[in-house]
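Format notes (please read before filing issues)

Several people have asked whether sequences and structure tokens are stored in separate files. They are not. Every record keeps both together, in the order shown below: the sequence lines, then the token lines. Line labels are part of the format and must not be stripped during preprocessing.
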Amino acid sequence: MVAGYMSFTALLAIFPFMIVVAAFMSFLGTEDDLNRIVELMFDTLPKEVAQTLEPAVAEVVVGRQTGFLTFGILTTLWAASNGIEAVRLAFNRAYNVEHVRSFVIRRLQNFAFVLLAGLMVPLMSFLIVLAPLVWRAASIWGDFGLTFHLFFIVVRYGIAILALFATLLVLHLWLPNHGQHLRDVLPGVVFTVVLFILAGTGFSVYLSDFSNYSVTYGSMASVVIALMFFYLTSVIVILGAYVNAGMKRFQRLSA
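Then the structure lines:
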């Protein structure tokens, strides 16, 4: 049930979160840069999920930078932070945390995380964009051909994996209502990253080769696919927390 709640809130939170990203882009770049960042953000997702979300997100955020800074900032942050609160609820249950932080503290933490993530997304995207420019400059001294293409793929997916790892690490250390040690959360974070890569690849293969949701759901097929992907991701994130909790309990019983 928690995974379903997380997937639903994630789908609702992604649009206000991208408005936060658009606000930072008003300082860091142009509208073309924002379009490029939207494309790069969804480039690592299964094709069917990206095709569903990317046009809708681009339609919402393009041209909204100034509006975010002048109207509705708290409403937007509140909507985006609901996704973080859903993850907190799942982690507290996985780690069997009974202590509850005050409502104000929780929301301030959520706002801070959304703002930090909103700033990091364009910065990491600029790194992805910068990588091929640096490589092209280096190609003055030689024609690297296929090597450039492989280099760009490694950089693009490497940055995406590192960003996922760092985000999960912060979530596990920060969100539960009691302190966590780095050594206690690392196994679950690594487990989540590896399983996310495998599940994303498998989900994409399943959709392309073994399933045709348009027959069952018609024009709503793309929405159903996106919700299924978010649900699968939520289950994987929750499993990572349970891996940490189980290993910590095992170590305590073995001591």
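For reference, the curators noted about this record: The chain has one domain: 2-254. DSSP finds ten helices and no strands in the chain.
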